[in-house]
From TrEMBL:
Pfam families associated with the record: CLN3 (PF02487)
Keyword Glycoprotein attached: no
Gene Ontology CC terms, in alphabetical order: endomembrane system; membrane
Protein name: Uncharacterized protein
Source taxon at top rank: Eukaryota
Residue ranges crossing the lipid bilayer per the database entry: 70-89, 110-133, 153-174
Presence of keyword Mitochondrion: no
Signal peptide (residue range): none
Lineage of producing organism: Eukaryota, Sar, Alveolata, Perkinsozoa, Perkinsea
Main location: membrane
UniProt organism field: Perkinsus olseni (Perkinsus atlanticus)
Membrane topology annotation: Multi-pass membrane protein
Assigned keywords, A-Z: Membrane, Transmembrane, Transmembrane helix
Length: 184
């Protein structure tokens, strides 16, 4: 297990990052739309659909992907960390919605495209880890299934921690009155 521990840790990290983006930063970024059209009223759901598209596309190759060196498995996770920093900034500053685009609708459409990238990075990391677990000669065949199960447990822990973080953030530094003009 020592030789595959980096892959297991990667699973926890990538799931923590992508769920922090989807459950916290994206949610906070799509509050209080200026318009009431289809895109504006459903910005979170449409952006989340973009995320799921990216995940589906990148996970679709898991059976065809050759096993990467363990060091390369971290590349999509590090890119996901950059996505997380971007979304953390956007959720509090709203520069995409209010500075980059003239309308919320255009900003929300951009969100959807960005979330495809978030899904691609998460799914690519997932695929790379499973290809590594499947093919690496350093893991005995009898331990591969155990490794997959441990990875699922670690990814679930990453999702749980991101959910708890999202709750804490939504009640503190990312509360609606902290990031938007307070309506009360």
């Amino acid at each position: 297990m020592r030789t595959a521990g980096a892959g297991v840790l990667n699973f926890g990290a990538v799931y923590f990052l992508e769920y922090l983006i989807t459950q916290s930063f994206l949610d906070r970024s799509t509050l209080h739309p200026d318009g009431h059209g289809l895109v504006d009223s459903n910005a979170y759901a449409l952006s989340y659909a973009g995320y799921n598209l990216g995940v589906a596309l990148s996970r679709g190759v898991v059976g065809m992907m050759p096993s990467p060196p363990i060091a390369l498995i971290w590349i999509p996770t590090l890119l996901q960390l950059l996505n997380c920093v971007f979304w953390a900034a956007e959720s509090s500053l709203h520069f995409v919605r209010y500075e980059w685009f003239v309308t919320d609708t255009a900003g929300f459409e951009f969100y959807g495209c960005c979330m495809v990238v978030v899904g691609l990075m998460g799914g690519t990391s997932y695929s790379a880890c499973y290809a590594y677990f499947r093919d690496t000669p350093t893991v005995p065949d009898r331990l591969r299934e155990v490794l997959v199960n441990v990875s699922y447990g670690v990814s679930s822990l990453g999702m749980l921690l991101s959910s708890l973080s999202a709750i804490i953030l939504s009640k503190t530094i990312l509360s609606e009155c902290s990031i938007y003009p307070c309506l009360t």
